[in-house]
Design a protein that fits this description.
Layout lengths: L1 E3 L2 E3 L12 E4 L3 E13 L2 E10 L4 E6 L3 H4 L2 E2 L3 H11 L10 H14 L2 H11 L10 H22 L3 H12 L12 H11 L1
Antiparallel strand pairs: 1-2, 3-4, 3-7, 4-5, 5-6
Helix pairs in contact: 2-4, 3-4, 3-5, 4-5, 5-6
């Protein structure tokens, strides 16, 4: 362990990424490492990890030297994902803070890329009964956190994103939303039979 001006610095571990591997970039979610390329920036050759975020229609280039600092990481294990989902099943955290502060904390948790922090947001904001309502901003935060969890879950279980979101909500026991505009077709047919 090295020291600089009396401050202990932990040796950084070398992250080893391979082309074709799925990775998590904290503020964007799951992407696929498509290639490693060299670019000349300010007269210096820099190795870049090129990550494709298909869902966002975005390509990100992260210098290899800054990969760890940026928070880029490999996918979590299936076991750790199960632990995060189990944590999301727990009792919602205390809501003593004003909404603006809680929303900022939730935003920070979402952008951390940490499955356990994402689980906290999902846990605190999920609907517990079919009659629970959410503000627009709470709903948006919940959906973003759920999507980030579902992105990793989908890759780990080789299913699509929508199926992963549904599966997580099923595991958590989140009640399905009621479609107030739905028409019961069978009732309409019964009326026609009675007229004849």
């Amino acid at each position: 362990m090295a020291t600089v001006k009396g401050i202990r610095i932990m040796p950084s571990k070398k992250l080893d990424f391979k082309t074709g591997q799925y990775v998590v970039y904290p503020t964007q979610g799951v992407g696929k490492l498509v290639r490693v390329e060299e670019q000349v920036v300010a007269g210096q050759k820099i190795k870049m990890l090129v990550i494709d975020f298909e869902r966002n229609h975005m390509t990100l280039r992260v210098p290899v030297e800054r990969a760890e600092i940026s928070g880029l990481r490999p996918l979590t294990s299936a076991k750790k994902m199960d632990e995060a989902i189990a944590a999301a099943k727990g009792k919602a955290g205390a809501k003593r803070m004003i909404w603006a502060r809680r929303a900022a904390q939730y935003e920070e948790n979402i952008n951390s890329g940490d499955p356990m922090k994402l689980a906290e947001v999902v846990r605190d904001l999920q609907r517990r009964t079919p009659t629970d309502t959410m503000t627009f901003s709470a709903r948006q935060l919940y959906l973003r956190a759920l999507e980030r969890m579902a992105q990793e879950f989908a890759v780990l279980h080789k299913i699509d994103l929508d199926a992963a979101s549904e599966k997580i909500e099923d595991i958590l026991g989140v009640p399905k939303e009621i479609d107030l505009n739905a028409v019961d077709i069978d009732d309409d047919n019964d009326d026609e039979d009675e007229e004849e």
